[in-house]
Amino acid sequence: MIVALAGGVGGARLAVGLADQLSARKLAIVVNTGDDFEHLGLTICPDLDTVTYTLAGIHNAATGYGRANETWSCMQTLSTLGAPTWFNLGDRDLGLHLTRTSALRAGERLSAITRKLTQALGIKHTILPMSDSPVRTMVKTRAGVLAFQDYFVRLRCKPRVEGFRFDGARRARVPAGLQALIESRQVHAVVVCPSNPYVSVAPMLAIAAIRRWLGTRAFPIVAVSPIIGGAAVKGPAAKMMRELGAEVSALGVARHYRELIDGFVIDHADAALAPDIEALGARVHVADTLMRDRTHSKRLAAEVIAFAHALRATRGR
Amino acid sequence: MIVALAGGVGGARLAVGLADQLSARKLAIVVNTGDDFEHLGLTICPDLDTVTYTLAGIHNAATGYGRANETWSCMQTLSTLGAPTWFNLGDRDLGLHLTRTSALRAGERLSAITRKLTQALGIKHTILPMSDSPVRTMVKTRAGVLAFQDYFVRLRCKPRVEGFRFDGARRARVPAGLQALIESRQVHAVVVCPSNPYVSVAPMLAIAAIRRWLGTRAFPIVAVSPIIGGAAVKGPAAKMMRELGAEVSALGVARHYRELIDGFVIDHADAALAPDIEALGARVHVADTLMRDRTHSKRLAAEVIAFAHALRATRGR
After folding, report:
1. Do the Cβ atoms of B248 and B197 come closer than 8 Å?
2. What is the DSSP string of A33-57?
3. Which residue in B82, B94, B117 is closest to A74 by CB distance?
4. DSSP 3-state assignment of A215?
């Protein structure tokens, strides 16, 4: 059994590759919910949705959020009525938000709702929100502390980042399915997907049960660099690293994950950084990490799985 | 100043005719909110929306609910996800429900929200919900007491009706705009639109402030029959009358409104009933009451206004 920790687009791309390589019994995908938010009375879970839509094959590959073949009639009305339109809500997408929000209001747990929704969309693999209670990533900026979507979408990541806070992480209620995995000793490796280290992966690590689990693990942790050739494939990771004084490179990411990982997968473009990364104590695997389509994802996933198994063998477990 | 009391389709059709005849200062439309309900976390106000969309000229004339040129992407998702789909929610329509629901959650009053929404849709006339607090029409049937939309849409009016209850009517909070009209003495006539007497008009009359106002009025009340030639133009009015033991005819409606009205407008098809209706104490005006389009609406509205003025003159006020 492999557990993947995934954020949005990058996480979803590796997750779908892992799902193509591993049966439903051999993979669980834990997804960041720190960027969830309330908007127009709806509870929206952008990373859960990106992973879900990608695994269901109904995601919008062009924009990186929402669904393919989307219509925008509702947004047109919102605009006419002067309601906020800074967050794009496609009509098809809305059906999921409405269903989830009303289930949450009825007292169902996010993990149970996610199971129902993913099954209804034909997904066989387990997708687990990192928490059944709200965790909210707050971005500390020069302009003050901002809710993540305010920073990310409304302000287009413009404010200079000074740090992060994960409200609710300390008391997060880990889903029963994740707790069972933590206690199972069936997990052979954890894969940290190429997601933003600060706002996709860090919220998961901020959850006590997850941090404790990974800190006392008997399995290797492998991360895939979200930085290729000194740039983020998508999103504000590079900008954040720069603003926080980190080196914007796969090496910078490896330093960030230093205490966490046993193995680090970097792109061929960054092969020269391998010695410096290995000097940090992590083994390095060099691969083609830019996942342009599902075939790329599946190929990278195979390499990541093999790398993890090799590390496990090395650890002698 | 004329005040129209309107329910759904029939109400909206006369209301738009009245709006075409009278300036915004000379007409206020009070709308039933007894059929409002909560669905998928949204507060939906079907009659308010029908009147609003009709006055804005964006209603779906074919179905009698929702908007023209509608798309149904969200409903497709709801269906895929196993969410309830018995109530049709078009994508454009949803934009209004989301906007209203989030404004209600933020503590705004329904009347204030309605003013904003109608203005945003280019409507100059005042549309007032009958209440700013929830009033819920409950249908007493052999199958038990049903929430109105459960009876009306989900069960397609099948259960046999035994009576009605208007939960919240007694303590209803009349909107400030309606209270001002009640106290103004500027109202020269009230027009009861050809809406369902039991579930569109009765909820309005169940509100203490409205009942007291109409009971002590110094102006005539004119109703337009929703029954033409022994049948309802739309909806379950005829079926309800039958089940409640009333005669399914304009005369039956006149008997129902006996204590309320000074004048009754009936269709040419029912002209023979005029003597019996006048024997009840109401003056009768015979007109072409089937409003097939906006031109018909405007013409009927002109006759209703003239009839009301004539009754007012007769009363010597």
Report:
1. no
2. -TT-EEETTEEE-HHHHHHHHHHHT
3. B94
4. helix
Statement: residue B317 has pLDDT above 50: no
Task: Report the pLDDT value the prediction gives residue A251, as an integer from 0 to 100.
Answer: 97
Q: What are phi and psi of B167, to 5 degrees?
A: -65, 130
For the entire predicted model, the pTM comes to 0.93
The minimal CB distance from A98 to the residues B40, B90, B96 is found for: B40
In angstroms, rounded to a whole number, what is the distance separating the alpha carbons of residues B172 and B129?
11
Place of tokens 């959020």: A65
Phi-psi bin for B285: left (phi > 0), alpha (psi -120 to 50), beta?
beta
Closest residue to A74, CB basis, from B74, B102, B116: B74
Mark yes or no for CB contact A95/B74 under 8 Å.
Answer: yes
Chain A residues lying within 8 Å of B96, measured CB to CB: 77, 81
Residue A223: both structure tokens together: 């991360």
List CB contacts of A275: < 8 A, sequence separation 6 or more. Answer: none
Taking CA–CA distances from B76, the nearest residue in chain A reads: A92
> What torsion do the CA atoms of A3, A4, A6, A10 make, to the nearest 10 degrees?
-170
- Counting residues of chain A whose pLDDT is more than 70, the rounded percentage is 99
Contact across the interface for B95 and A73, Cβ inside 8 Å: yes
The residues near A284 (Cβ < 8 Å, ≥ 6 apart) are A263, A264, A265, A266, A274, A277, A278
Tally the domains of chain A: 1
Q: Which two tokens stand for residue A107?
A: 């007292």
Question: Interface pTM (ipTM) of the complex?
Answer: 0.92
pLDDT range class, residue A64, cuts 50, 70, 90: confident
CB spacing of A83 vs B93 below 8 angstroms = no
Provide CB contacts within 8 A for B90, sequence distance 6+.
Answer: A73, B66, B67, B70, B71, B72, B74, B75
Within 8 A of A94 by CB-CB distance, chain B residues are: 74, 77, 91, 94
A interface test, pick of B39, B48, B73, B88 with most A CB neighbours within 10 Å:
B73
CB count within 10 Å of CB B281 equals 11
What is the domain range of residue A25? Answer: 2-314
Question: Closest Cα to residue A191, out of A167, A217, A169, A171?
Answer: A217
Could you read off the pLDDT of B285-316 as tens digits, one per residue?
999 999 999 999 999 999 999 999 999 998 75
pLDDT at B32 over 90: yes
Contact predicate B75/B34, CB 8 Å: no
**pLDDT score recorded for residue A232:** 87
Q: Which two tokens stand for residue B280?
A: 């009840």
Calculate how close chain A gets to B36, using CA atoms only, in Å. Answer: 17
CATH assignment at residue B262: 3.40.50.10680
Considering only CA atoms, which of B100, B10, B119 is closest in space to residue B54?
B10
